[in-house]
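If I may wish for something, please walk me through the protein I am sending here so I can picture the backbone:
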Amino acid sequence: GIEQPQVSTKRWANILSAPLAMACVAIVAFSCLSFAKGYISQSPSYSVGQGNLNAIGGNVCQMADATSIESNTNDAFLTPVAGELGDSLINPDEDSRGFDPNFIPEDIEPENQNSASVGAIGSTQTGSSSDSDQASSGADPSLGGNVDESGSGSGAEANAENVTDSSSGGVRGTEGVNGSTMHLPFNLDYTKVPVLGSYNSGQRGTSEVTTQWYNLPEQPGENTPVLSVAAAGDIYHHDVNDIEQEGMELTLEYGTLADDNEVTNTGELELRDVGATPKWRNLRIGLDEIPEEANVVRLVAVDDSTDEDSWLAFTPPRVPELVSLNSQFDSSIPGLLDWSTAFQFPCQRTFDHFAGVTEIPEYRILPDAAAQNSLTDFQSFSGGGAMATAEAVNYSYEIPSYLEGDWARDWGAIQKYELRTNSAGVTPDPAEIDYEELTRTGWWQNSEMKIRKEGED
């Protein structure tokens, strides 16, 4: 017979491995080019590539140095040209309809939430059972609170147990400066900060409101580069990729106030919207985007829908002082870092365990809104995860934060933990650990092991 040619196994391996090797090279090249594109497009702001290059130069704290947080939230609100801050959201000289201090939903859930969020105890609840029941309004001056010389919070209800972390809504039960009983986000002091909303289950028409004019800082400082507005609802904007997102209108108008109190050279700007809608988040814009001749700004809100699910709410504008996250929460302070963010914060320390006792974290770093909504509740209280112990004794509120120089990008979020109090207003004492070290031989025994004998119950 005719002898068939034999192809060696090695030759077949070479033939089959060449396309696979080429595919691997292409994948690696594509990944490297993607990192390079991200580095170039996000420069000079933070990116993973820039963080890696900075680490080579000795700056190893990555995103912790590029992320800024507000240090004076409640003291950063702009001063109205006329009147007081509490009355500034409605301009008596302009037409206003449909907005009210209590027209805000009691329960605000993020859209497109496919699975449980890695959130706090009661993060999807409202009322007195939420994760912030023990908060006192404006309790922490270093993180946006407002305290008097005696150390008590401002306002008549300074010692009341009021919710301050309310990005998911809720009813506070006590009236704020403009009559609102709805929860305010970001530890805002409701005795000082007014709020308006357009949500109305019986809505039959459109809503519109124009605020009073607010004075801009005469000389914006290096640490005050951004104007921010706490807002909720579906708001029209262009996202970080410049894609148009539908919603209600919340526009920043600017102008020049003359000595005769007449405003000229007016124009309008679109605020950057960052975070999960319709929850409370901080709309923002760089002060360098506002014309230099402008010295006043105001907000114009329009809800042109009669659908009760289409609404918006907002507070006055503010120009906060920003400090780096790393300067406020360094390695000496225990934190809870979500697994998807930990590698970007190598200078922050996860809470420790010793002698069977858990250290209580003082803050938590979360990923961006999309990741928060898609993660499972593996680390939550209900899942018996790392947050169980932390939030059994703490309430939390979000600190407004920004990625330096990249105002439209959602970098993630940081929450501040504060100890809950009992009915007498007393916080739990730190555990005192008594322990001793004993050295035993390998054959030491304290007692005989009890073994069930046959026939015993």
User: Anything to note?
Assistant: The longest strand covers residues 249-257.
